[in-house]
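Thread: "does anyone have the structure for this chain?"

Original post by V.I.:
We have the sequence but no experimental structure in hand. Need at least a predicted one for the grant figures.
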Amino acid sequence: MEMNLIKLVEDFRSEDACREFLVDLRWPNGVACPRCGNLTISRIHKRGQFDCDACRYQFSVMAGTIFHDTKLPLWKWFIATYLMVESKKGMSANQMKRTLNVSYKTAWYLCHRIRAAMGSVATEKLSGVIEMDETFIGGQARYPASHRDENGHTSAALRSKAMKDAMARKTIVLGALSRTGEVRFRVFPDRRKGSIHAFVKAEIADDATAIYSDDLG
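Reply from O.Q.:
Generated one for you, tokens below.
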């Protein structure tokens, strides 16, 4: 199905349209109980849920998905997913915050969950010409008022310490992009040789034509 941002907004402007799309996507052969597999299901329209006629388990189409327990409208999830898939250079939480008019915390959560979902469905390793890099998410430098002089300035030493503290709070994400458009992301505790090599072995095929990155040894 071809999709662009305008068509996405037109087709999924309501929660009902989003839910029905997810139902068809998740259960193309009819709604099935995730607990017992029974196909005889009743709908609870007011709550947007289903009720299994066999085991009486009540569930929604979002149960067990990245949308589980979300308070954010599904159309915003759909737009966020589209933007992340279509953005070859990636999309930061700050960009997502401005685009969807949500808080930074919500934008970070969206990006994190969508990247995790994208990584979980990627079965084939990247091949061809690959571009690799890392990014740091979160953690801002903080300069307490008690560390400033009478003019409100902070010394170079304290600025350096604040920056190091901020870097320690950041999450490291390694990414690889095939020039055919496929992308892989993974969160790592560091960017040492072992972590980077593990990422390459897990996500990039042995017959990849070339891997381009920055000057990090």
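V.I.: this helps a lot. The mean pLDDT is 83.
O.Q.: and The helical segments are 5-11, 15-26, 74-86, 93-100, 104-121, 156-169, 193-203.
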